[in-house]
């Protein structure tokens, strides 16, 4: 994959391209040479993270496909029990994502992230042997414990390798994994479910057996190839690594090797920008999880067969993936996040209104496309935007973890607002998605307006008195430093 390098920084950090110019004949002042180095990183890092996150999302939503292949009947499930089985997965995600990044800052990613992947892969595999509803719920909780560290860990690792205005493009590619998983999930749900009765196992069991084994294989691959943090990496030549570390430090005054401690994490959680990132991601994930988990159920309410519902869920994710990456690249090129977030949430609202209010199945299906495109445009943007607004390993790690963790509560909300009794219109569930998208517009405007106001104050010299502080005190200012500019 060839990913353009963002160049929207319009203040002092752009000067890093000329650091030590003339000292080394192999320096990266040439933009073409700079792109070559970044593409080396892209080709080594992104495919592994995408494979990991594909299995993450595939394994958390495959219960939606399993439901269509006699899972509830075989396990004697009734009423809201399916919704509860979906819900309990998200509780450990909310609780453990910040502590997980604290661990990751102290461990090698290949050991920690690969170990998590192997843990939930084995759990998914053995979940196929569940004999009761209680066994299914216990397995879902354990999967949530292992998966809690995956998304914040991937975002944290990306943030360690790229500058702020190169990040959303890479996060967009990471979230293409959602679309790959959504596409594969529908196809696998139709294919593996058709094995119903083979070797005495139901279709839902085959879904868990095969997809769990695939996850274990990805865990082995990630152990072999996943990159460490840049300061620990050896795959780049010495002069390229030196150039990379200097440009990263100049971008946001980061200090390499910083570990996330409890005191630093608590302090970061008191920052309104970190809290706003969590709410923004929650506003996205309510609709995102509804689309991922309940889309086959909603499509079957159109009167379509289970196989057709599974298959027609795939093109929706392909379309949303194309738009997500395209908008991510555009956002990095212009160095802006707010206008794209507001537009994405607005498009999602329009799509959900079509699904909720129109009676024709074809138009409602088109509405799902529109809702998915708007939702998945916002998903990488809001997490990258939050990390753009903070300085330091601790704040970046906490921002990605808190955003992902608080956003996981969207899965809890989505799992409760789509009961079968509301079919075929699902007014409460779709209305909830619309309400959260509207709250996302409000939160985006708050982030946008405040940060624009603060940037203007710095440009007018109203924060220049901080330059009189001792150098060690200036280093602790983070985003309050007069040279730092928020991303709008």
TrEMBL record:
Localization, UniProt: Membrane
Entry superkingdom: Eukaryota
SUPFAM superfamilies: MFS general substrate transporter
Keyword list, A-Z: Membrane, Transmembrane, Transmembrane helix, Transport
One Pfam entry name: MFS_1
Membrane topology, as annotated: Multi-pass membrane protein
Entry keyword annotation includes Transmembrane: yes
GO molecular function, one term: transmembrane transporter activity
GO CC terms: membrane
Domain Major facilitator superfamily (MFS) profile per the UniProt entry, residue ranges: 45-458
Transmembrane regions listed in the UniProt entry: 43-60, 80-99, 111-131, 137-159, 171-192, 204-227, 272-294, 314-331, 338-359, 365-386, 398-417, 429-453
Protein name: MFS general substrate transporter
Organism annotation: Trematosphaeria pertusa
């Amino acid at each position: 994959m060839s990913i353009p390098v963002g160049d929207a920084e319009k203040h002092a950090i752009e000067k890093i391209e000329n650091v030590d110019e003339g000292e080394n004949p192999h320096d990266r002042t040439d933009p073409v040479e700079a792109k070559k180095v970044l593409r080396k990183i892209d080709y080594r890092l992104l495919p592994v993270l995408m494979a990991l996150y594909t299995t993450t999302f595939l394994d958390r939503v495959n219960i939606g496909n399993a439901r269509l292949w006699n899972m509830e009947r075989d396990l004697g499930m009734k009423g809201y029990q399916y919704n509860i089985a979906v819900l309990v997965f998200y509780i450990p995600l909310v609780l453990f994502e910040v502590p997980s990044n604290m661990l990751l800052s102290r461990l090698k990613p290949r050991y920690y992230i690969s170990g998590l992947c192997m843990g939930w892969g084995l759990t998914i595999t053995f979940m196929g042997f569940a004999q009761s509803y209680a066994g299914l719920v216990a397995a879902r909780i354990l999967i949530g414990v292992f998966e809690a560290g995956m998304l914040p860990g991937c975002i944290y690792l990306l943030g360690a390798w790229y500058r702020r205005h190169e990040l959303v493009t890479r996060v967009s590619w990471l979230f293409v994994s959602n679309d790959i998983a959504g596409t594969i999930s529908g196809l696998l749900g139709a294919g593996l479910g058709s094995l119903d009765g083979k070797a005495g196992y139901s279709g839902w069991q085959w879904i868990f057996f095969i997809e769990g084994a695939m996850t274990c294989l990805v865990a082995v691959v990630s152990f072999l190839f996943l990159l460490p943090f840049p300061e620990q990496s050896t795959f780049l030549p010495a002069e390229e690594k030196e150039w990379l570390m200097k440009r990263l430090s100049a971008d946001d005054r980061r200090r390499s090797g910083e570990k996330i401690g409890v005191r630093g994490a608590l302090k970061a959680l008191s920052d309104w920008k970190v809290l706003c990132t969590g709410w923004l991601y929650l506003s996205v994930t309510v609709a995102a999880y509804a689309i991922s988990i309940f889309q086959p159920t909603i499509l079957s309410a159109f009167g379509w067969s289970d196989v057709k519902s599974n298959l027609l869920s795939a093109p929706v994710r392909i379309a949303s993936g194309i738009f997500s990456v395209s908008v991510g690249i555009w956002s990095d090129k212009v160095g802006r996040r707010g206008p794209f977030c507001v537009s994405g949430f607005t498009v999602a609202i329009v799509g959900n209104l079509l699904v909720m209010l129109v009676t024709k199945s074809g138009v409602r299906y088109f509405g799902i496309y529109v809702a998915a495109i708007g939702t998945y445009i916002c998903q990488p943007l809001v997490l990258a935007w939050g990390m753009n607004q903070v300085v330091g390993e601790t704040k970046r790690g906490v921002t990605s973890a808190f955003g992902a963790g608080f956003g996981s509560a969207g899965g809890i909300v989505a799992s409760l607002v789509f009961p079968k009794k509301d079919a075929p219109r699902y007014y409460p569930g779709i209305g909830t998605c619309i309400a959260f998208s509207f709250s996302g517009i409000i939160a985006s405007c708050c982030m946008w307006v405040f940060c624009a106001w603060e940037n203007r104050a710095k440009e007018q010299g109203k924060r220049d008195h901080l330059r009189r502080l001792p150098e060690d005190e200036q280093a602790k200012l983070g985003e309050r430093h007069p040279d730092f500019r928020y991303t709008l």
